[in-house]
Amino acid sequence: MGGCAVRTYIRRAVVPVIVLSVVLLTGCGVSDSDEGAAPQKSSAPEAAVDEPAQEPSEEGQTPIPGPSLGLASGHRTFSVGETDEYGENYKVTTKMSVRVLDVKYMTPAELDDAKALTLAEFDKTNEPEHGQYLTLTLMLENVGGAPARITTYGMMKWQDTNHAAQDATTLESVGGPALDRTYAPGQSVIGVLVLDVAAKGGTVSYYGTKDPSGEPAFVVTLPSE
């Protein structure tokens, strides 16, 4: 990947668009290590697509209306950084942009129907551990000048007014590209996360950072239906 700017879009399962809210908090750092990424069940070929450049928006803003497909005002940026070998002296190295394209609550049977044809026929979806599956479609793009390592597996936490923060990540997949990867400057990927939450609504936060503040890199407010 190196320093070459590559912009990629990935074919994915099409699911209905539901309006939701997303807020990006203070940017946080992400490890540049390839370890800790979620095991992937399948992947699809990536295709480069040209897209008009988006201006990064300011960080730390209040919640905004959730984006529909292609709504430029729906994306936010967050910082990616690194620490020294002792886990100290954090410094920002680049910026990532995140855009929420879709969210949908699904049953295990519906997830099976949504899976790509490349997945094995016997690979059936398990019952959700916490009670409710949802698919979260994100577009991640490196809008800075250095590579960025993004790891979502084990780093997405769900909570609401009745439930404390809990890990929402799963090994389930609907096929397509993985969001967990190293992004070269200018590279973007659209991928689908299958999350397991206790109830509809609440928020999902990304904590895959090394920022000493401990704040999430971004927070997605989920619809209640």
Question: What can you see in these coordinates?
Answer:
This protein is mainly beta and 225 residues long. The protein has a single domain, classed as Immunoglobulin-like. The protein has one helix and 13 strands. It has one helix at residues 108-114; strands spanning 8-10, 21-23, 46-48, 75-82, 91-106, 132-142, 148-150, 156-160, 163-167, 181-183, 188-197, 203-206, 218-221. A five-stranded antiparallel β-sheet has the order 2-13-12-8-9, with no helix packed on it. A four-stranded antiparallel β-sheet has the order 4-5-6-11. A two-stranded antiparallel sheet has the order 1-3. It starts with 7 loop residues before the first strand and ends with a strand.
What structural class do the secondary elements suggest? mainly beta
**E-strand count:** 13
Assign the CATH topology: Immunoglobulin-like
| Terminal CA distance | 40 Å
The proportion of strand residues reads: 25-35%
Over the alpha carbons, how many angstroms does the gyration radius reach?
A: 17 Å
CATH class: Mainly Beta
Q: Give average pLDDT, whole number.
A: 74
Order of helices and strands: EEEEEHEEEEEEEE
Low-confidence stretches: 1-37, 40-73
CATH architecture designation = Sandwich
Count of domain modules: 1
Strand order of the largest sheet: 2-13-12-8-9
Assembly of the depicted chains? single chain
Give helix % range.
under 10%
**Coarse shape:** globular
Q: Count of DSSP helices?
A: 1
